[in-house]
Amino acid sequence: MDFTFTEEQQAAVEAAKAVFADVAPDGVPSPALTPGAVADDFDRPLWARLAGSDLLGLVLAEEHGGAGLDAIALCLVLREAGRVLARVPLLEHCAAAMAVQAHGSPELAAALLPGAAQGTLVLTAAAHGRSGHDPAELAVTARREDGAWILDGTQTAVPWAQNADWIAVPAHTGEGDAVLAFVPRTAEGLALAEQVSTSGERLAELALDGVRVESAHLIDTPGAWERLRQLLATGTCALALGLGESVLTMTGQYTGKREQFGFPVATFQAVAVQAADRYIDLRAMEVTLWQAAWRLDAATAGAGGPLPSSGDVAVAKIWASEGVRRVVQTAQHLHGGFGADTDYPLHRYHAWAKQLELQLGPAAAHEEALGDLLAAHPLG
């Protein structure tokens, strides 16, 4: 098996590193010291630099102004974004654009994709349902009326919805089918209520009351929403990996300089063992991430496997949700009181890690889902 990345994927990583090189994780007020959101908008200057480096169109075809790369390339860039806590809707934007490209009508693609690639139009996705625990597509109903669709329901924790131009909203038709509607933020009947994430970023509760969506702006292709959901989950795992790697590097640098009894604490066996355990967590997060991303690309190309790609995504989510929590907890422990200092960036990584863990959901739930898949698809 060949685990190396292609030249195009490696070039995307280098471009991302150059864009994120000057990003400061503490560039906005601390979430620990701010009663509301840390800022009213995402990092627009960074967004412009991402657009200028053609990273917003990374996964779009050349006809739409993109580079034509895949989910693996997107996850590689998201990993770099996670390292610096980049305050941009890069994951939601690119994942929603991929859904439009793969399944949307020509009219929808023409309306959204050129602007999405250039960064002049911002996309986000409502993926958490009414409570964050129930399937998102069950939180909104979609019914046909006079050649269009009418949406009613509520979605919670929609990232940067107040600053996006279009929102991808999953819904159900009452006949067991999940559809994906693209709704402009200014649509009549759409209301946004302010919410704030654990990391201090703006979220919104999205209320839809008789929102009318043209047929060309709704995707009813079977599996379209499921693929978008899996891509959002896999991208969140990539963010968690990048964050965890930065935290472990930060911890190694601190314990290498901090001395007790005349020796760096990194030389103490108890400290070294804990750091080694977290390194193993990160490597497990990494290998399961690339397996999930590869399966998503393979499924798009029509290749199958012994289990659906949702099984590989579940494994990646298990490791990411548990692993990122263990990494930041160990980092806080090994930093001692210094890790809680709001003038030091570790507490920000801890807050972001907790938010990513909440987005991914509990590992036990993914283990149960994986067990159901194994029962339904016996191996061998």
Describe this structure in words.
It is built from ten helices and ten strands. It has 380 residues and is an alpha+beta fold. The strands form three sheets. The chain has a four-stranded mixed β-sheet, covered by helices on one side. A four-stranded antiparallel β-sheet has the order 2-3-7-6, with no helix packed on it. Helix 6 packs antiparallel against helix 7. The chain is globular.
SSE arrangement, N to C = HHHHHEEEEEEEEHEEHHHH
Parts with pLDDT < 50 across at least 5 consecutive residues? none
Helix tally?
Answer: 10
Could you say which structural class the secondary elements and strand pairing correspond to? alpha+beta
**Total beta-strand segments:** 10
Determine the strand fraction and express it as a percent band: 15-25%
Tell me the major beta sheet: 4 strands, mixed
Physical arrangement of strands within the biggest beta sheet: 1-4-5-8
* First-last Cα distance: 21 Å
Assign an overall shape: globular
On the 0-100 scale, what is the average pLDDT? 94
Helical content stands at 40-55%
The Rg value, from CA coordinates, equals 21 Å
Characteristic terms for this protein:
four-stranded mixed sheet, 380 residues, four-stranded antiparallel sheet
Task: Give a brief description.
Helix content is 49%, strand content 16%. It has helices at 7-20, 44-52, 71-83, 90-103, 106-118, 224-257, 269-300, 309-335, 346-360, 363-376; strands at 123-125, 140-145, 148-159, 166-172, 178-184, 190-196, 202-214, 218-219, 259-260, 263-264.
